[in-house]
Structures are given as structure tokens and as C-alpha cells.
Amino acid sequence: MKRKLIASAAIAAAVALTLAGCSGGAGAPTSSDGKTVLSVSVWSMAKTPEFGALINAFEAANPDITVQPVDIAAADYSTKITTVLAGGDSTDVIGMKAIQDFTKLSGEGALLDISDLVTADTSAKVTGLDSYKVDNKYYALPYRWDSWVLFYNKDIFDAAGQPYPTTLTWPQYVDLAKKVTSGDGDSKIWGTFQVTWPTIVQNIAAVQTGKDFLGGDYSFMKDQYNVSLDLQKSGAMMDYSTSTSTKAGYAPLFTTGKAAMVPIGSWMISGIQQAMKDGTGTIKNWGIAPMPQIPGATSVTTMGTPTGFAVNKNAKNVDAAKKFVAFTSSAAGAQALAAVGNSPAYQDAASTATLFSLPGMPTDAESKTALSPDKAVLDTPQAPTTAAIVQIGTDEHQLIMAGQTSLDDGLKEMGDRANSEVLNK
Amino acid sequence: MTASPPTIRHPKITAPQFTTPQLSKERALSARRRARRTALIGWSFILPNFAGFALFTLIPVVACFFIAFTQWDAYNPPVLVGVNNFTRLLGDSNFWISVRNTAYYAFGHIPLTLAIALGLALLLNRALRGIGIFRTALFFPYLTSLVAVAIVFNLLFAPDNGPINQILNSVGIANPPRWTASTEWAMPTVIITSVWRDMGYYMILFLAGLQTIPREYYEAAEVDGANAWQRFRNITLPSLRPTTYFVLILLTISSFKVFDLIQVMTEGGPGRATLVLSQLIYRDGIVQGDYGYASAMSLALFVIVLSFTIVQFKLSERGNK
């Protein structure tokens, strides 16, 4: 009898634990003190200070709501969020880590239409709003927008006696990179460092030339490829194969003064600040210039990527959830984000001032304007064909950059494969 | 592996000579109850393991046979599409390239690992001072995290300033292979890495097999004047047949489902030079959310592995006759 009791107690405990694990984050809608408990899914909270900043600011502005973050490891975030939503999870607010997550979830119908949150103020001031628009309805709002810019190390330029980069054309960028390259072996300073992702060639070319990345004809990428191939051939940039096999990181190379320039998204600002704070970086004076442009361009066009929040279709606290999402892409949310080194999607003078008042930030006017390009376009257009075309682009990018195929053949093959495998042309 | 389980001696029950029908019925009942109790105890022992196996392996495997005939994004209910996924498979160049690459990997990895593991086992199957150190050292790669192995080998094989190419340069090879950066050499590089990692594990299996061969066989052969090769050919190899069969099966299965090493080392590149089936399944299923199509590919992989195993089984059976 006694044994039976213990056994059933053990089973009950196991079942309770399992259920608790499954429903993690759903919780009761109200806490004991009558406050609304809003659950928000976020990733690697300890390493991503923006969540703490947003939640604290939101709770201060809404004393009747308590935010309960559901923390998921960044690397597993996309898979895990798809899985729990498929299981009918009722976490109220869902963080949109990458635009692909949004495409997948909105395509599945897992997100709530929140078009009513888009006011005249948001549409005027929030960059990247349309990234989350499907059939003229908004299913998420961006709180961060990271445009691609050109980071540069002022001390390396001073030592080489070269002027700081301003709005360059791509050929000027190549020339400048060659001029500020110096040293050999351990003392090598690369003129520039480009990530191995195809984005830095394929997507920027599509955005700046206005050509269709999903169209199936990729000859327009030729000039942009010649920029990268020229840079790696001349030794002004670490070559592609070495970058991939050594898994070289752009932030460590830049913050330790090994790369004079790095074209990358504005998210590197917080990486630089972190490196300066914890002492792993040696960089002292740096600046931000606009992304280089194609010759003949009359305004600054760059690509960017949003990070946002959406409301779960199965949310228990829809009103509070909407309040939270609206807050994150408002002036108050922007202040909180800028204070921890992020580029808010909601752009106003106050948040820019806050961002550039942080310790270690450049103080020149050019760096400030570089973060507000004339035109910032979503890096990868989203459609049902996107994932497959991005994969084909990645395959051919590796072959072209590693010299395993000629540029013309690679681009032709990319178009042929896109047409036959994805577009059915 | 060959040790027989200890035999359990049940106390002999001697049936009394005369019993009333009532009593015998009771006895039959209690015997049945005892049998049921024994079965239940047995079940309770395997239940923790079986429950996990059923939940995370058996049910998903069975479900795969159904999902393969549907279109399913894991969020909305699956839609039956008949054999569409399979016809799509036949015309998918990614699928055929990954089948070819998987076969390339398997036919490189299986014989090389088998031969090197056996060679090492023969080398270390003798009484030598400090033999334990050598055996441990060779087993070490298997204990190392695969991700760490992949990253370190990537650095070693780096085409321009990696230590391997620097050594090759210094011995006068002007144009050493560009390893993972080249479409021709990427797969051999992955195979070399995986052989290095796996050889220790299979060596231990062969060592265990070698220990079971009675010394007398060799002594008798020596008396008959057999040389080392003849002893190996006619005693060692045939005696190792069960071990070899076991190793071969394990190697085949692990080679066809290779994923982690390639995912970390090359991500299937450059281009599609090292794209293997498991990776394509992962990409289409987990990453892109096309679970129906990914399940169809899993079934194709299942059929491939199954047919290789059956062939090996038949060959081994014939060899035993």
C-alpha cells in the first residue's frame, strides 16, 4: 500500500513537471496582486541587454502590467518558437529575431493582425515598418532597425596618412582599402574585412541597383563581385577561404585594430562597446561612414534588417500585448534602446543624441548622419521562394569567392538553378 | 558480447499426486498470476527506457511514414498530397547530388576506418610496456567533442596559412590541395577528419574481438610452419568475422547519416560539394519548415541504409556457411 502511494506520488510529480515544462510561459494571466502578467518570448536575455531595458521602461510606464520574459537560447530561438507555437502555446508577445522567422510564422497564420497599432507617427518615424507588412496588414512592429554602414578605425587612417572615408563609391572604397593595408603575418592590418555571407555582395547589389533578388537573372551582381574579388586578390582583404576556415569574426578584427574598415550592420556598435568595456578591444578612435555606393548614385541607399515583436494569435492578454509592442517602437522605447547601444527603429533626434552620448561613441557629425541613410531597404525580400533562392545564392557565392568557378559561370549557374529549381521558368 | 547470460535455476515444483479439481484450478490460477507478475516486473524494468524510446524515436519514425505523403508546415494540419513528395524528389538536383555525396563519403569512410582500426588493433594487441597509454591515446579522438574536432581540423587544413599546407610547402610541394576550399578536395578532407576521429572506437571493438581468439590456434599454426601472413589470413580474419560484421554495420549506418561533422566543417560547401542527405533533410525540414518533403527524403535514406544492411547481412550469412 505504502509503495503504491509513493509510486503514484512519483507519477503525479512527473506528470506535473512535464505539464509545467510544456506550458512554460503561458502562466496565469494575472498575478496575486491583481497585475496583468504579460509573457514575452526573448532570446539569450543575459547577453542581449535590449530586452531588460525595454521591459523595465515598459513596466515603469505601465504599473498595472508585469512582464514575464520567456528566455530561449539565441541559437535555438527560430526552431523553438516555431515548435511551441505549433503546439498551441499562449505566450502573449513573440520576439521576431530574424525576418525569416516572421515570414515563416506569418505564413502559417500564427500571428495576430496588429495594423491598428500603426499610427501616423509610427509610419513617419519607424524605419522598416513595411518589412512586416503582408497583404497590406501589419503582423509585427520593428523596435530595432540595423542599417549597413562602414565602420572605420581612425587611428589606422591617421597612421597611413589617408583621409577618413566619407560617402565613397565602391571603386573608391577598394582604392582606399588597398592604401591603408599594411604589414605581414602577425602585424598585418587588413584594409577592410567583409563577412563571408553572400549578403555583402548579392543583397547590397540588388538593393543599390534596384534589381530583383528573387528574379532569376543575376548578371547585375557582377560589379559587386569584382569589388570583393579584387580586394581579396590584392591582399587588402582576408581571402574568403581563410575567413571561412578560420571562422574569422568581424568584431574581434575591428576592435583589436586588425581591420581598418568593416562594412556591417549598425549592430556592431554594441559589440564595440562591449569589447571596450571588458578590455578585449584595443580600439580607441573609430567612426561610422555611410555604406559605399555604386558609381553615379545621387543619394545614399543601403540595406538593413529589422528586429521586432508580434502578438501571438493564441495570446491571453491581447490588449496588454499590443500595448507592449506599440511601446517598443515608440519614442519612449527608442530612448530605452539607445541607452544600451542599439539603433532603434523609431528614429528621432532624442534617441540619436542618447546613443551618441554613450561612452566611447564617436562624436563627429558624419558618424551620426551615417546611421540615417536616405533610403534603407530590407536586405532580403520576403516571399515563399526566398529561402530556396538564398540557399542557391549561398552555394554559388562559395564557389565564386573560393575561385572554384568563374564569375560569369557562377552567376549564370545561379540564375539557371533559381529558374529551374524554384521559379519553374 | 559472446558471454552467455547466467542461467537462473528455478526451484523444482513437484506436483502432489492427488488433487481435487478445485485445488488444481486454484493452482493454475496462481501460476498464471505468477507469470503475469514476472512479466510485469520485466516490463517495469524496461519501461523507463522504452517510454523514452517510444516517445522520441518509435512514434516519430512511424509518423514519418505518414507525413511523407503530406504537405505539412508543423503549424497547420497536414494536407495529403499522395506521392507528390516522391515525384518531386526524383527531379530534385539537390537530392541526387546529396545522394552521390553521401555515397562518396560512405565508400571513403567505411573501408578506410575499417582497415586502419583493424591495423591499429593488430598493432596494439600484444604485450608491450606502456601499451595502455597507446590504446588510450588512440581512443582519445573519439572522446573529443565533434564540433571541436571540426573547428581544429578546419584550422589545420586552412588553405593559405594552415600548418598542413605550410609543411607541404616546406617539403617542396608548390601547389598543395586547397582542402575544404576546393570542390575536389572538400570531401576527402572531411573523410580524413572523420576517419581520424572514429578509428579509436572501432579499434577497441577489434581489440575485444582479438582477445577472444584462442592462443592455441596460433601455436598450432606455428608448429605447422605457417608464416605471419598465413596466420593472419587463416586464423585472425575468420575468427574476427562476427566483430567485422558488427563494425561494418555500425560504420555503414553512421556513414549514411553523417551530419554534424559536415555541418560544422563545410556546411555542405563549397557550393554543394559536401552536401549530404541528412543535411538536406535538416535544411528542408527544420530550417524551411517543409516537413512532408523532408520526411520523404528521410524515407529514401531509410531505404538506402536498409538495403545496404540487408546485403551485408546476406553476405555475412553466406560467409558463415
Automatic annotation (TrEMBL), chain A:
It comes from the Bacteria. Keywords: Signal, Transport. It is found in: Cell envelope. PROSITE patterns: PROKAR_LIPOPROTEIN. Residues 1-28 form the signal peptide. Coiled coil: none annotated. GO terms for cellular component: cell envelope. This is Sugar ABC transporter substrate-binding protein. It comes from Subtercola boreus.
From TrEMBL, chain B:
It comes from the Bacteria. The keyword Transmembrane applies. Keywords: Cell membrane, Membrane, Transmembrane, Transmembrane helix, Transport. It is a multi-pass membrane protein. One of its GO terms (biological process) is transmembrane transport. GO terms for cellular component: plasma membrane. Residues 99-312 form the ABC transmembrane type-1 domain. Its main location: membrane. The chain crosses the membrane at residues 40-69, 103-124, 136-157, 185-208, 291-311. It is found in: Cell membrane. The keyword Acetylation does not apply. Belongs to the binding-protein-dependent transport system permease family. This is ABC transporter permease. It comes from Subtercola boreus. The lineage of its organism: Bacteria, Bacillati, Actinomycetota, Actinomycetes, Micrococcales.
